[in-house]
Each structure stands twice: as C-alpha cells, then as structure tokens.
Amino acid sequence: MEWNGEAIKALAKERKVTLADLANQIGVSRQSLTDWINGALPKGIHLIALCKKLGVTPNTFFKVSDDNGITVPVHRAKANAKVTPERQGYAHELAREYSLFFKNISDPRIVPVIRSKDRSDESARNIADKLRVRADARKGEPLNPEEAFTLMENLGIHVIIKEFPNTIKAYAFYTNIHSYRVVFLDYNTKISDLIFALLHESIHAIRDEGGIGTSYDPDEEKFCDLVANYIQFPEEYIKFVFDSIHGLPNKGHQINQLKTFGQKNIHALYGLVQQIIKSHPTFNLNVGGADTNFRKVFPSIGDELFSDSDVSSYLNTLRRISPVFFHEIVKQYSGLSDRRLGELLGVEHILDGKEVRLELEKSYKQRA
User: Fold this and answer.
1) Are 232 and 197 in contact (CB under 8 A)?
2) Which of 262, 296, 348, 352 is the residue whose CA sits 20 to 30 A from 231?
3) 255 vs 143: CA distance, rounded Å
C-alpha cells in the first residue's frame, strides 16, 4: 500500500488543529510533519501517536488503490458532508466487493478518454457538446434519464445501484476496478438528482484515464460540475426557461413555473437557476428551500427499480438503465451462488437470488 501523507493535512483541518500544534502534540518538529505530508513515512511509534491524536487507524494514511487493482478518486460528498480519508476508505471497501467480478471480465472495451487538463469554460462547453452527441440527446432539450444512461453505456461505464451505508455521503461515486469504469449509484438517490450525479461521475471517468489524479481537487470538482450542467441544460433550454419566467409578476410565480419545467423534464431547480445566472448575471432568484421540498416529490432510483416485487420487471429495468453491467452479469451468473448474485445486484434484501437466477436462465442467457 502507498503512504498518503496528504491525509494528515485533511484530517487536521477537519479537526480544527493547526499543523504546528499537531506536531507539538505528537512530539516531533513541524518540519517532520511536513515531510510526512510530502511523502516520508513516519516511524511506527510516531504513526501510532499520529493516529491517536487524530482518532483514526493507520490504514487511513495509506492509499486504497493499486494494491488490489482498485482506485477510487477522492469524490465530493453531498450536501454539507465533508470530504475525509475515512469516507474514501468506505467507498473503496464497497468497490472491493466487486474486485473478483471485474477481474473475471474477458473482453475489455475500447472507451473514449479526454486527456486535456484545460478547465476553461470553452473547454467545458466543447466536452459537453461531444458528450451530448454520445448520449443521443435531443437538440436544445434538457437531458432525460434515458439519455443519461445511454451516455453511460457509450462510455463503457458499469452503473451499479447499491444502497450506500451511512458512512458514504454521496449520490454516486466513480471508481476504476481492474481498468473497468464503474459508477456506484446510491439506491436512495432521487430521480431529480440522478442525471446530474451520473454526468458528474462520467466526466471523472473519462478524465481519470487522462492522468488527472486521485487527490481531492476542488477545481476539478467545479469543472466536472460545469461540464455536467452544460450537458444537462443546453443553451436553448436555458433561454427558453428564462424567457418564460423573467416577466412573471413575482418570485413565487417564477418558482412555480420552474417547478413545472422540473417536473416535466425530471430535474431539480438549483442547477437550472445557476445556469440561468451564468447567462443573465443580474437574475436573482433564491430557490434553496423550494428546491429541497420539490425534490421530495420524486421517487428514488430504488423505487423505480423495485416498483413491484416482480423479478422479470426488475431485470428488464436493470437491463435498460445499466446495459454494460447487466451484460456481464448475464455472462457470469452461472458461476455465482444465489447469495453472491444477490449481493452483486444489490437485491439480497429485496429479491430472492434463486428467483433472479431462474429468470436470467429463462429470459436472458440466450442474449449474452
């Protein structure tokens, strides 16, 4: 495993302790602590003292990556949750459950990569235009869920829907498992947040192989947001929405009209308003509280998958929204136990693994 000294700085900031104070509490010089942050490995006694002061285990300071063929680029947490090495470790543990599954894939796909490190607005627009083409997006219309999943398929991304533990504070996160692109999507993610979450992680996927790196980079996160917004909300749609609301008599009417657009096109309000502001800087509309309440009317992706307890319906939906992952499940299921099949699909507490196997045998084996 590789020493990750950067975690010291992140944890010290989270615990609101200065690096000078931390060094003093451990009994080393400030320079020694800086050396550890920059890559030097502390002695065992100092590592133990460091862990004790920060309230973590030694594994926190080692990168969870190349030793088993899995990399989880540091991803942004949702809402007000903080990005921490511990959360990164929890995401890695979830990804590790799929290590053998991806190691057994025999036909790697040729997938697109964006190697440019340019984070300009023009670059974001260019990338967005290319990805909208790959999504088969309707010209001038906001991306819909079907188009988002089409993009995932065309980028060779395995979308895996799992119920995240409370320790993973994210709608979705990207990981590379034995050179395969994987996006884990939380079962409880609302449909209104689905498209943006998938788009953001897909951009990480195509830029990850361009050497962007695995350390948390707020500028890279902002750039992924920028590209995702341009993909989801094309300029024609932004203009149409703005023209429809800016002349309304008050902000209440504007918000209600935005909700109409959001309901029709399955998206939240906040991102749309931010895009309007980019085009019209004087536009001022606070939709924070309204957006929070509006999202509650949408079902979660899990609700969509398990709208009934019918195994056939579930598999048909999974095949439609995650064809890359589903195709590989069909190829490998005969060598999996019922329990393991349920775990990989994330249905072990919802559907019977044996029934899933029988349905796969009956309806899908011949299509593999």
Assistant:
1) no
2) 296
3) 21
